[in-house]
Each structure stands twice: as C-alpha cells, then as structure tokens.
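[step 3/7] inverse_fold.run input=structure_tokens len=204
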C-alpha cells in the first residue's frame, strides 16, 4: 500500500472513558434555560475534583481536536411548571432533592433562589451506563444519573443506580434496520466527545 501524504501529521484522539461510579463534583456554572419544547431548566455544568479522575471533563475538553467544542460535564435539571399535576410534583421533588444535596455538601450554604450562587459548590454524583439507539445504531456512555451528598461519596455510603441497558430485541431490531439502510456494521461502543485543543476553557 502506498503511503498517503500527511499521515504522520494526523493527530488521532485517545479518548479516556469514565468508569461508572461515584465522584465528588464541583459546580462550574448553573444557568437557567428554556428548551425548544418549552421546558424551563437549570443547566448545571460540573467537573470531577477528587480522585483518579480529577479534572476529567477539563482534560477531555483540552485534549480533543474536534472543532465543535462542547463541555460534556453537564446535567439538565428540569424546573416545575407549578401547574398542580402529578408530573409537576415529581419535578418539584427532583429539584429540591438536588438543592438539598448541594446544601448538605456545603455547610453554611443556603439556596436562596439564586442559581449563580451554585457556582463553586461541591456535590456528589452517581454515574452509570446508558445505552440508546441513535440513527439506527447502538451507542453507550457513562454519565451523571443523579446527585448525592459529598460525605456519602467519600465514605462509600451511596447506592449506585442501575445501568439503563437495551434489551436484546431492541439491539437486534436496530441492527436489522441499520443493515437494510446502509449495509454497515453497528459499532458496539460510543464515547460522546466534542472539544478543542489549545483553547480557553468555557469557565473561569
């Protein structure tokens, strides 16, 4: 095979995968946003600040060469509509649980209905594996499922959430439809990374 030009100059990302587990996080930003479907949310950006995977999302952001740079340490917390429905009551409980975990993890801190005050606060995070069918293909990644108290993470007094895995029928159906559509093999693993090299981080 003839060597093509520029081969030695091509930078191929080596992507480190985050294992499922419990981590101590620092909130880098909390921003109120509205989704395209009209849901008000609190978009919480974070990074890991203790242990082997300290600065995981920062390093991922810096070391990747993808052009579409996005910070991947993000959890969207939905805000209630205050409309009295059962769904809204669940949303309220979910939101207050998040705030309670932050308050417990930062002695002396009180929520006070000021989302900017969440910046710099510690909170625990429970990360598990999720599988989905996207564009007819199976993709999987470990991400933040839920919050916990920092003390629980440090002492091991937490209960890990179960992975959200596809059934054999769901995978087989996706493989069939994808093969009919494109004739290409289904990848068995997926790490969602978009970032940039030699760029400023999106947080102070």
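[step 3/7] decode complete -> sequence:
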């Amino acid at each position: 095979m003839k060597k093509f030009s520029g081969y030695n100059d091509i930078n191929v990302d080596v992507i480190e995968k985050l294992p499922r587990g419990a981590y101590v996080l620092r909130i880098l930003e909390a921003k109120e946003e509205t989704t395209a479907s009209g849901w008000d949310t609190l978009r919480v950006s974070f990074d890991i600040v203790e242990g082997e995977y300290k600065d995981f999302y920062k390093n991922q952001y810096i070391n990747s060469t993808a052009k579409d740079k996005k910070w991947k340490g993000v959890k969207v917390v939905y805000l209630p509509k205050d409309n009295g429905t059962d769904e809204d009551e669940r949303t309220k409980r979910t939101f207050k649980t998040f705030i309670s975990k932050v308050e417990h993890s930062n002695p002396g801190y009180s929520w006070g209905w000021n989302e900017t005050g969440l910046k710099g606060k510690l909170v625990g995070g429970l990360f598990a594996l999720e599988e989905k069918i996207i564009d007819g293909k199976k993709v999987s990644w470990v991400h933040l499922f839920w919050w916990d108290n920092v003390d629980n993470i440090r002492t091991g007094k937490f209960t890990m959430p179960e992975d959200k895995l596809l059934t054999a029928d769901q995978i087989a159906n996706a493989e069939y439809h994808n093969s009919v559509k494109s004739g290409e093999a289904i990848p068995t693993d997926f790490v969602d990374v978009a970032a940039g090299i030699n760029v400023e981080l999106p947080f102070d």
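[step 4/7] annotate
The beta strands are 21-34, 40-48, 74-78, 122-134, 137-148.
Residues 180-199 have pLDDT under 50 and may be disordered.
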